[in-house]
Amino acid sequence: MTQNYSLERSPIANISLASKELFHSNFLAWAFNTYPTTLNAILDCAGLSARSSDESVEVTREEQNLDLVVRIGGSRLVVIENKLKSLPYSEQLRRYEEKAGKLDSGREDPEFVLLTLTSDDCDRIPLSLGRWECVDYGTLTKSLLDYIPDNADAYHREIVRDYAQFVGELVRIANDESRHVWNRAGSKIDGEALPAWLTKHKLHDLFGKRQGQIVAAKVYEEVTRNFANTVHWQHSPKDVGSHQITIYSGFTNSQPLVGVFYALGGLPCPAVDEAPPVGVGFQVQGDQFRSYVEWPKPGRLAQKPVGRDLPSKTAAIAWDLFCDERCPESFWTPKQKSGAEKQNADSGKTKSRYKEQCRFGAPFQYRYRPLSKGGDTRVALNALAETLAERTIALLNDLKRIESLLQEHQSNYLA
Description:
This protein is an alpha+beta fold. It has helices at 11-15, 21-34, 39-45, 90-100, 119-124, 137-146, 154-175, 196-200, 205-227, 313-323, 381-396, 399-411, and strands spanning 57-63, 66-72, 76-83, 111-116, 132-136, 231-233, 245-252, 255-263, 279-285, 288-294, 338-343, 350-355, 358-360, 364-370. The strands form three sheets. It has a seven-stranded mixed sheet, covered by helices on one side. The chain starts with 10 loop residues before the first helix and ends with a helix. Mean pLDDT is 82; it is low at 186-193, 341-348 and 350-354.
């Protein structure tokens, strides 16, 4: 890639804005269909057998909701799944395999290729890839240029070259050291600033989303060593059964988010048929390290409690738990206020700016500690993942106490 490469001036980079992640699948489908020799670029990177020069190539998009389905000659079938913006989880890959099995019964068993942005992503995926071969975009696009035939249209050759440079720039930014520092400030990332073009077109979410997934994957790996049979990857809390754990990530309010949720047993949401269980956990977003209680479907606990100046019974139950001297410190230090002290620059004195308790509606009640300590505002992803994993394991060892306390406090509001 040339040093003066400009995302803003690149035709391919700007065209990609129309469909973003879908654009990459569409571009590869065009390349493979137009110049079948380029298919060997991805087959070679994946360690699969090359296509023979006399074999036909047909590439379809979104067949059975699969990103790319490639038919080679009369027998081979290759499924390519594009994960430029996210890491897959085992249930996804199993669904893709099931869908691939419904394609062409007369062909050989499908071969599977998983496309990720960087080579590190293949190592971060918190599951066994099984039948899938992992290929990163940086390696693929460099190889793509080598497989364009000599008689290719000059314009097409320049398009592929621009595309390779565009992807190379995304990979460079993703691999930059500053991406390994937790993004506490939305589109303004610590360390090297994102190119203005990316922020202007809201592509910074690509890197923020990846940060959440990187931390979540490391936490998942550590927690599964101790609780392997109860841990799920990227499940919604409402889809987790009693005594099960989910480790998840997301990107909201221009910030990455990572969380851990443990579904308690014996605490169903009242007046809600087949409601998912109440749970506790941790969540990190921005500069907040949150301890929370979540009622996925709070039912009548969403009502305002009698005699309490709180918006819901769930808020009252959580308040009582956070203030209970018996509350395990692995979850929350009893009676500790939520938030952090702020320095008054004029007087040099410390001024308290606390919120007693925070919430996202009735279902989600939390208190938080500041993520950064003192003047140090840079939090490395590895250090954050290590802290979150340690806190999670400590919490899981105190669950009986937390469950007993929550049951006691919730019973006070069921009359």
